[in-house]
């Protein structure tokens, strides 16, 4: 297996910039927020960001000092090529830092996976599949991304993620290849492999008892669906931790996406704190959920016919108002403006809209813009030429929004889709950064009462604040409901097994 590590002086410069930015963020936060938790979280974020750079030793020393057992495992996998530009290497990185040694194991076969869904659903699936491959001692082939989903994004894994980093940083756990060895490729071309969708929410015994024998028999097994194929709970801790290691360390976006992300944070940071609003008020969301509250009749018809025209979408007849009352609709831009104001969010804060095109356009954004005049989005912060390469690629645009969401002071998703959930968990990992988890069912009731005049503004505002006091992405236990995996808390929105370091430091603080 050839491991490539594309490191050059440019990338070194990137790391320096990242480090400088981390320091700047730390400084700004110190002034703004006195809470130790926040400061701690910023330190943690900064540590992770700066890991390949000069502060490696500081990190290691701190982590060891905290007596944590697994976090250093997270850190060990960063790529490092001693044979590339050694002068640059010497000046920037601590000596003796080498990539993790390859894990030596008896290979049981090869696992190919075709992910399905949008970017963040696939992100979680990639973590699951790497953990399964590790556990079964098989070789994982770099996952294939969905090109036929609604988003029809042509991007390959390496267009979104740093594939060499993915392979290298996990090599002490599982062997990953960009493609099958030629001999096996032939077999696959001849149809001599086994393709199946694994059963959803399976525990590890399923993979051991059902999948491993197939791998041994066919040598190559192909998973043709990957969403939620591994249980949230009841898995050995080493599997949960590996899911995190992949998610928080091995999956890094390409340098093009990371660079655009850094440009956006720099622009926003210069002007102060910022909130990322994942305003999931996009046409596809509304058409498929059937949520038409606030739309005019033509819009309602347009959304409904889009749903009826889509053959893979089974649910056709939807009662929008009932769905909304059950808390199953994304908040509208108008509802969002009311809620953010009621929560006491500063009117002057910069709000970065992480979303594609908002349905209804300027007309629907008017009240949000009136309440929060500093609304920005990637298209207003970056020049068209900067976005040129990723613009048509919805997954790459989503990757950029994900990066900005991680970095923000406050993250507010208006719907609990995959982006919202995975970013929520990632922000917990980065030190329980503030994520406001809106209770939509309760909110739509309060909003209707306020709009009809049965609640005063002050009553409305205090009820909204009270209901969200503990919905800020703080440490908590995942809700476990045996036999009802759909209703449990999602592993990736609260990967509690991976947050011990922070938990312990909180307890002692
Ligand atoms: C995987 O390899 C390890 C040794 O590296 C061994 O202990 C374990 O039993 C193997 N598991 C499977 C499923 O082959
Ligand atoms: C996955 O494979 C199974 C079994 O070969 C097949 O029935 C199913 O249609 C495939 N699904 C997809 C999404 O390709
Ligand atoms: C795994 O799932 C199977 C099938 O649902 C169940 O019978 C088995 O008890 C589970 N095993 C563990 C270790 O939870
Ligand atoms: C989408 O991304 C791919 C890979 O980065 C790139 O080759 C292609 O030009 C992009 N498409 C557009 C329309 O920008």
Bin the strand percentage. Answer: 5-15%
Reported for the largest beta sheet, the result is: 5 strands, parallel
Helix content: 40-55%
How far apart the termini lie comes to 46 Å
Average pLDDT across residues? Answer: 83
* Ligands (ions, cofactors included): 2-acetamido-2-deoxy-beta-D-glucopyranose
The low-pLDDT segments are 1-43, 50-95
Instruction: Report the structural category.
Output: alpha/beta
Anisotropy-based shape: globular
Q: Helix count, per DSSP?
A: 24
| Neighbour order of strands in the largest sheet | 3-2-1-5-4
Number of strands: 9
If you compute it from the alpha carbons, what radius of gyration comes out, rounded to the nearest whole angstrom? 23 Å
